[in-house]
Amino acid sequence: MTPPEESLGPLLAAPDRLWTAAEVLAKPSPVPIAPGVYGWHFDVAPFASLPAQQLLYVGIAPRKMTSRRSRQNLRTRVRYHYRGNAEGSTLRRTLGCLLGLELRRVGSGKRMTFGKLGEQQLTAWMAEHAFVCWTPHPEPWLLESQLINQLDLPLNLDQNKHNAFHAQLTEIRSTARRLARELPILT
C-alpha cells in the first residue's frame, strides 16, 4: 500500500527502522524492487557544520518513467549508493567531497570518481555511518520537489537553493571538480 504523499516526509525523517549497508547488500536484500523514495541518515556528520542523527538526503528511483521501462528501482539505486562510485551517485560524490577525498578523472578522463582507494574508503565510511530508509511509491518523481521543499536536506543540491548549506556544498563540489581537472587522469 502506498502511503499518502503528505506522510512521506515524516516517514523518511523519522522512520520506524533504518537499514545498514550489510543488510541492504545481503541476499536476499530487504530493499524492494519497486519505484519509490529513499532517505539517508548518518550517525556521524559528514561535515562539521552538518547535524548527525538525522535525515540529510533524499533520492528517488527511477528519476522519471519514460516510454521505455526503467531499470532503476529502490533496490538498484540504494545498493548502488552503498557500493558504486561517485560518477554514478550524487550522494557518493557529495559525501566524498565533504570528507576530503580527492576527486579524480578516470578512464577516458570524462568520468570522475575518488579512484579505487578513495572509493573503498568512502564505501567503508558509509558502511559504518550511513543508514537508509525507503518507501515504495508508483511515481516518485512527482514527490521529489515536495520533499525537498518540506524537509531540511542539506545534501540535496537540485531544487534546493533555499537550503542554508546549498552555497557551501556547491562551492566544495565545484572546487573538487576544478582540482580534478588539473590532475593527471588515473588509469
Domain tally: 1
Structural class: alpha+beta
Separation, N- and C-terminal Cα atoms: 47 Å
H-E order: HHEEHHEEHEHH
Q: How is the quaternary structure best described?
A: single chain
Q: Give the integer mean of the pLDDT values.
A: 94
The portion of residues forming beta strands comes to 5-15%
Low-confidence stretches: none
Largest sheet: 3 strands, antiparallel
- The rounded Rg comes to 16 Å
Helix proportion range: 25-40%
Number of helices: 7
The strand line-up of the biggest sheet is 2-1-5
The number of distinct β-strands equals 5
Outline type = globular
Domain GIY-YIG catalytic: 52-174
InterPro entries: GIY_YIG_cat
Pfam families: GIY_YIG_2
Protein name: GIY-YIG catalytic domain-containing protein
Descriptive report:
This protein is of the alpha+beta class. It has one domain. Helix content is 37%, strand content 15%. It is built from 7 helices and 5 strands, in the order ααββααββαβαα. The chain has helices at 8-13, 21-25, 74-83, 90-98, 115-129, 144-150, 166-182; strands at residues 36-42, 54-61, 104-106, 111-113, 130-136. It has a 3-stranded antiparallel β-sheet with strand order 2-1-5. Strand 3 and strand 4 (111-113) form a beta hairpin. It is globular, with a radius of gyration of 16 Å.
Write a brief structural summary.
The protein is of the alpha+beta class.
Considering the chains and any ligands shown, give keywords for the structure.
187 residues; three-stranded antiparallel beta sheet; two-stranded antiparallel ribbon; 7 helices; 5 strands; globular; GIY_YIG_cat; GIY-YIG catalytic domain-containing protein
